[in-house]
Automatic annotation (TrEMBL):
It is a multi-pass membrane protein. Residues 21-469 form the Major facilitator superfamily (MFS) profile domain. PROSITE patterns: MFS, SUGAR_TRANSPORT_1. Pfam families: MFS_1 (PF07690). The keyword Zinc does not apply. Gene3D superfamilies: MFS general substrate transporter like domains, Multidrug resistance protein D. One of its GO terms (molecular function) is transmembrane transporter activity. This is MFS transporter. GO terms for cellular component: plasma membrane. GO terms for biological process: response to antibiotic. It comes from Streptomyces cadmiisoli.
Amino acid sequence: MTSPLTPSVTEGRWTPRLWGTLLVPCAAMFLDALDVSMVGVALPSIASDLGLSTSSLQWVVSGYILGYGGLLLLGGRTADLLGRRRVFLMALGVFALASLLGGLVDSGPLLIASRFIKGLSAAFTAPAGLSIITTTFPEGPMRNRALSIYTTCAATGFSMGLVLSGLLTEASWRLTMLLPAPIALIALVAGLKLLPRSTRERDHDGYDVPGAVLGTASMLLLVFTVVQAPEAGWTSARTLLSFAAVAVLLTTFVAVERRSPGPLVRLGVLRSGNQIRAQLGAMTFFGSYVSFQFIVTLYMQSLLGWSALHTALAFLPAGALVAVSSTKVGDIVDRFGTQRLLAVGFTLMVAGYALFLGVDLDPVYAVAVLPSMLLIGAACALVFPSLNIQATNGVDDHEQGMVSGLLNTSVQVGGAIFLAVVTAVVTAGASDDASPQAVLDSYRPGLIVVTGIAVVGLLIALSGLRRTPAAGRSVVVARSLAKETDAEATADPDAARVPVRD
């Protein structure tokens, strides 16, 4: 399923133009990962320089999450309707300008605003970039290889961000904000030359304005409520009313989408078991990892007294393992299928988290920390590309942006929800005893919850193995709830089929 305007693809042949089409979206993903990993280490310097309180400082991170997680559904569908290349390049330009603004501001509110704008632009570049890849490379070995390279760029960006943040913050926290700007501009210039012009979806039934408003409002309010819940209190009237409002908005959104001739999210796509498992797997995968990183960073810096650079280097083996091995995952998927790789990956992830439960106040890195990092790195190398492949396989080109936005929404919402839950568990476990051992003991319940989240992901993956049909058969993906008819399915029988392995 490729657009007629995409580069000519010959099975097994990778032309320079094809590489260029792949590397530009990879650069955007690299930037997203780089930016997320760099800002955490710079927070203490930002607070000192701009005079921010702890509650204000959290919005340097939360502002990005709010813009990113809240607008992904809109970003994905916009790419389908207005053209992936156009949406991707415009959003990348905004990302570059917001990065420049973030490095030059002299007040907390302006910095938070720049972070929100960066998150907003990433909400458009991420699904547009992923859908450019999935509509350029045909489903099968070529797409699997492309998506494994895409994963490698994300892991490389995250790993480099950890190290660069430690180095740049020593000079100035502003450098961590400014660094993405020139990289984004280079990617923008390259994209203008290398990305193929994509067609808009000309036969759509108008713009789903009510769905866009309701979907965006519900995601924004959900992310905002979850981020604020640990501070406001999970059982406070404010939090409960916000969750009730989210429920009302989501219910209304579903009702509107069921009746819309051109929905923001075609609900029929979620009748595919593989699609549901991919979305739930994305939530548990990223939610468990970001929560683990949060606790371990506190453990290393607050308890062990490690520097920011020392902590970054401690995480580096996991990212380096992903960067080195991810390019090979496509071949493994071709042989074993995504469900088997997801099951193995989540098993490694559970083992890595569980192993870390035994850490003490005087750990030997090679014995107590490194094994967990290597297991988690191996898990990420298998799980992340497999989720991308499974979510986008069997989906028509004109809905790739929608599915990509849905997957990225699951990633971000899962991260926000589970991090908030784990933070609440750690806070609840804290006592008046400020001794190092007491603080470490307050971290363990959070680590147990992280491990439990990964176990849920493993059970979801295993459920897919039990439902895999016999070899040689295929599974029909549900089409539209109302407008698609049997005649359409007869006219295009292959468009609705998903390979058995996925």
